[in-house]
Structure formats: C-alpha cells, structure tokens
Known about the structure:
Blueprint: H1 4-17, H2 19-29, H3 46-61, E1 69-70, H4 89-98, H5 104-124, H6 128-139, H7 142-148, H8 154-172, H9 174-179, H10 186-206, H11 215-223, H12 227-251, H13 263-267, H14 269-293, H15 299-322, H16 329-348, H17 351-354, H18 359-372, H19 376-392, H20 403-419, E2 431-435, E3 439-440, E4 443-447, E5 463-467, E6 483-486, H21 491-498, E7 502-506, E8 511-514
Parallel strand pairs: 1-5, 2-5, 2-6
Antiparallel strand pairs: 3-4, 6-8, 7-8
Amino acid sequence: MLKKYNVLNVIFYILVILVPLISAILFCLKEGKMINDVYIPLGGWSDEITYYKQIEGILTYGFPRGYFGYNQTRAMYGTLGVWGIFPLIPYIIWGFFFGWNYLSPIYANILLCILAILCICVILRPDKKCMAVFSLFWTINPLLNRYILSGVVEAYFISQGIIVSVCGIYLLSDRFRCRKSEHVTQSKDRTILWFCTVMISIMTLARPYFAVLFLIPWWKAMKDKRRKWLILLPILAIGDIVLFFVNNYFFCSTYFENIFAFEKMKSGGVGGFFQHIADSLAEIVRQTWYAVRYDGVGVGWYYLLWAIGLLSMIIVCIRRAYYKKKVPSLFLITLIGNSLILLSFIEIYDLGVGARHILALIVANAVILLMETHFSVILIMAAVCMAAIFRIGDADMPPYRNAEYSEYMEQLKNEFAQVVLVSDSISYDNVVTLPTVDYVAENPGQNVGCYYGVMFALPAGVGISLDFGDIYYQEEGSLKAGYYLIHPKGMIRTRLDAQGMHCIYETEDFALYTRW
Length: 516
C-alpha cells in the first residue's frame, strides 16, 4: 500500500507536469474565459493565418495547392512559406490524429510544453522546491502563456529548448551529477548524448542560429575525450546549417526582405557592423525602459527577463572564478550561445519581432539556473513576470470568441467555398493575396486596410501572400495571384479595375477580386 507521503509526491509532480495546461486555464480565467473561448481569427497576428492555412493544406492535399509568401513570392520548388516544413511537423501530427480547427494549434502547444516538463522530471528528478518555483514562474508569465494560447509555433521551440537544456544539465552539470550520482550511468550518458544531438539537429534545420547548441554535446565529448564525436559534431553542425540554407533557398519563399542576404552586415563594412550592434543594444535598453515605465508596452519585458537570466550567470561565473572555484561549463556555453543568437537576431529581425524568438531562451535559461544555482533567481524572474502582468494589462491578451463574429466567419466559409475554387494543379491561380498597405481612393493621405483574419475562412489548400507595400499594384505585369482581398474604398481597387480584374464578392469591409 502506498504511503501518504508517496501519494502526495505523485500528485505534486502530476500537477507540475500539467502546469502548461493549468496556467493556460488560469490565464483565460483571469478574463472570465476558458481555453475553448480563444478564437485565433480575431488574433491580429499574421503568422497565425499562414501557419494555420499551410498545415490545413498539408492535411487536406498533402501540400497546399497555392503558394505561401510575401509580396507574391514563392519557393523555387514546393508551396510552403518562410521556414518551410520543419516547424510544422508536430502540428501536422496533431492534426492527423485529432483533426485541425482553430483550437488545434493551442492544444498542440500545451501538449508539447507538458512533454518538455515531463522530461525535466524524468531525466533530472528535481526536488519539489525547485519545481514549485519553476511552476510559479511559468504560471504567472504573461508572455509565455500568450504564445501558448496562439496559433504560432513558438511553443514548439520553447519545448525543444527546455529538453536540450535538461540534456545539457544531465551531461555537464557537476552539481547535478554529484547530487544525483546514483542516477548517472554510462549508458544513460550515451543515450542522452545521442538524444540531445538529434534534438539540436532538428532545431537547427528549423532555425539556423540553434546550431550554437552543438556546444553542449561537443563540450561533453571534450570532457570524455571522445575523439570521434569531437570531429563529427562540428561536421554535423555545418551540415545542418548547409541543409537549412539549401532548404530555404529551394523550398521556402523569402520574407518581403531577404533576411538571409546579410545586407545589414555587409552594407556598412566592419565599422558599420559594430555600429549596428551598438545601436541595437541601445534599442534593447530603450525598449526595456519603456516597458517598465509605460503601461501596455510588452516587447521590453522579454529582454528584461533574458537579461536577468544572463546577468545572473555572469555574476556566478565571476564569483566562482574569484574564489578559485570551478566555473559551471553549462553557464559558459549558455552565455556564448545566447550572445551568438542575439547577433543573429540583430542581423535577421527587427528587434520588436525578434523579441518573441527569445522566449525559448528565457525558459531554457531559467531551467539551467534553477538546477545549477539557488532558486532565488527564478523567484526574481517570477516577480518581473508579475510586474509585467500589471503593466501590460489587456494590451496583448488572447482573442476570445465573439458569437456574432464566429457566425460571420462560418457564413464567410460557406460563401468563400462558392467563389474561391481550388484547382488540382499547384499554381498562382490558387493564391489569395492581401495588401497590408492601401490608401483611400478619394483621400490618398488616409490609410485604409482589410482585416486579414477573414482569410481563415478561405477554403483549405489555398496559398496566401501578404503584400507589404502597394508598389506591386502600380507596375503592369507584377501581379501573379489568382485572387485579391482588398478594401472596397482603397486605391488598389482602381488599379485592379484598370487591369481588367473582376470583383466576385464584396462586403462593406472587403472586396474579393479575381483574374477571371
């Protein structure tokens, strides 16, 4: 018969593992809602529609019948948009087994994070105090919960980041290996080393900057004097990066700006490159200051949490070096890796857009800090999360179902199915494009736009292009898509009329044009 103490332990760890689900429920309850009330067509994030429709097209046809991209670009081969197939795989699996609807990406996100926390408990067997603090940090983190309750794929990278950090702790943390020596064996070392390497390879194929995580198995191989691994791991890292760029070049469409052209790095020379880094760091400080000072500003909170984690690691390294103690190798790897990833963000992204990509790093760094040092650092990060809740307020809450709008979307689904015809062939004829910039025809100084959330109602299999700028509608012959979703009072409508295109569906909010 189980002792009461053991039963309570089991209940505690079950609750810890289910924290992503519990915290998502609590996050919604704060607004008097439930998870099933979240309605991503009202979300206002463009990535949600492109991820959702790509997965829907794959589940329906094997691949979408129209191209995904920006400014009516397309991949050289295939139909998928930026980043390609690799970030979509777990969501495709979910859709295959459980079906695909507006709630599917959210529940897939929750499951991925549950599996990641399960890895913490199974591999590291942390004490209850540590996991209680980590659960608190997770539950009151508004940035983390917002992305879990969304249609984007960041939760996938968060879960992968946690798992790789757990593997790194098991393989490299002297503190952990001394404390849990009875659970450390050579066979487990080999298994986790292979598992860690495979996970990092998968992450690198989706986002190239994750290649820096190969430092973890490489460092372990160096400690154990595994010569084959020391040679093979750099080759594998380079191979994954090459495969990423090959995949990106041939099988993914580019951003509206080619983020992999490295123009920022090349344009100003060496001096300009370092000046750009300095300006970007100053911008991060400015955004952090604005987040702390003003209500409703969210971006700076990401960088503040990131900085707290990294500064804590720096302080620990300096103190241990000062007292001639061994510096945690995992901290050194984390600091090197995070610095290189930050440089990648500065080159690839606008810092506002790039902020969400550091969520995986924030959570992974928190796991490392929790297991390698005292849990007080995570309590500080939890306090920052609490401050963020009050400061951000309702500025970036999940969108919740509105009965009238839900009915409107169902009506649109039926009506779009009648006028948007998805052919069996893969072509631009199956692409619906939406210009994100337009101006009132009678008043060119006034911006006007069409809400792209209605694109969720388009038939499965269509490709979607978001056009950032109206220049594409000024040049004869530049338009390729079969369908155009535009504002009925915009200047772009007059240009489509001038090119002989036809309006096939119109409301007071948008007009749908086609080439034929």
